[in-house]
Write a structure and sequence with these properties.
The complex is a heterodimer of chains A (196) and B (276). Chain A has 196 residues and is an alpha/beta fold. Chain A is built from 6 helices and 9 strands. Chain A has one domain: Rossmann fold (3-Layer(aba) Sandwich). In chain A, helix 4 links the parallel strand 7 and strand 8. Chain A starts with 10 loop residues before the first strand and ends with a helix. The relative contact order of chain A is 0.21. Chain B is of the alpha/beta class and 276 residues long. Chain B has 10 helices and 10 strands. In chain B, the strands form 2 sheets. Chain B has a 7-stranded mixed sheet. In chain B, strands 3-5-4 form a 3-stranded antiparallel sheet. In chain B, a hairpin with a 4-residue loop joins strand 9 and strand 10. Chain B is globular and about 55 Å long. Classes of the chains: A alpha/beta (196), B alpha/beta (276). At the A-B interface, strand 6 of A face helix 2 and helix 8 of B.
Amino acid sequence: MNLIDLKGIEIIAIGGSVGGIKAVSEILKSLPADFPIPIVIVLHRLRNVTSSIQSVIQHSTALRVKEADEKETITPSCAYIAPANYHLLIEEDRTFALDYSETVKYSRPSIDLTFECIAEIYGKAAIGILLTGANDDGANGLLRMRNAEAKCYVQNPNTAHAKVMPRAAINLGAADFLIHLEEIGPMLKKAVQNRN
Amino acid sequence: MAESKRIEIGEVEVEKIIDALNRFHGIDFSGYSRASFTRRIQRIADKDANGTFDSLLNRVSENKEYFSRFLKEVTVNVTEMFRDPSFFASLRKNVLPELNKQQTLQIWHAACSTGEEVYSMAVLLHEASLLERSTILGTDLNPEVLLKAKQGVFSERDFPEYIQNYERSGGKAALSEYYDSSYGNSVFKPFFKDKMTFSEHNLVNDGSFNKFNLIMCRNVLIYFQKPLQARVLHLFKNSLVTGGFLCLGSKESLLFSDDRLAFEVVDAKEKIYRKI
């Protein structure tokens, strides 16, 4: 059985915090270079230090991984990472916009903000996945996605590195499904094969 | 939840606000990127408990006091000292030695907001013995933030991070030598402020007013759509002396502008360019 149906899906959004780099790497490692749906990843990261998140994650997967650039058009076969110290927004024309405004829940990038944009622009053509994390950023955003009829997946807190973030989403009623980390990648891969 | 009473700001509402700001106040936001701008207006609307969109629009149009608050909120005024220390390290290494060849220095911080980067730059100039011969201009469209910049008073709370940034930028002194602390504030010493002038200037419709040796405009272009970005970059090009430097934010670039050919790259990663 496959919990994920990718028919009509145009974007996959993933959020996480503590333990998130490892979790995202675990998901992406199953995906091929030609995975046809763009993936947008928002992870909390340190400010004002040069960090290597992009290359660490790239190391785990055949899929192209890059930091989102401002006004860049979102295209398939790419996983985009929100750059450090910017919020990552999305315009109507499906290009990225960066924003250096106030932190949201002490976070910049904010998972909530990116997820809200995706809810507004993609509606039910999106999948949201919220992973491990030690604060409740992302829960509201995921709820907005769910209210916009996106399919929303939350990592099972029992097996998450940090439980606060997935729990917050569950408590808000933002989760359609609870899943274990190692299931996600293979499910996405299989779902793509069944897509047409 | 209060969600039901929320004033929803969509495309139509944003265009109405842009039109009102233009007609009543002569400030043109039509070239601003919509995702961020819409969010700013939504943020303001969310603070209006039981308001309606029409009442908000009326106040923006006709209530001077409300408009001035609105203006401050609708533009992003988040800034910090020595943001991206590696950028300031590159300035020290690649730019200041070149500036040292000039007798006098004109420096422009465009859209400087509350001035944190203006003071960061002044510290660098001071440490390179260039401050004496410098005139630093800070501009913004918002008079309120300029007042704050002029005072050079920043919250002490933020300084642990600023000090860390400063040290990462290659700062060798103690940053605290440059300001006096009082009542939770850090007040920059007068010899910095003596070199600074602040004035209103809107990048959208104001022109060039001088030739500068260095223009700093970081994390401003990200809020503009491409045609406005191109216009502003053109303005910068025309406002630089030959050999003058242009510094953009770490995710901004000259790459898509027709004026890129007028520049050489000094530091691609830190987005430092030089007019040739």
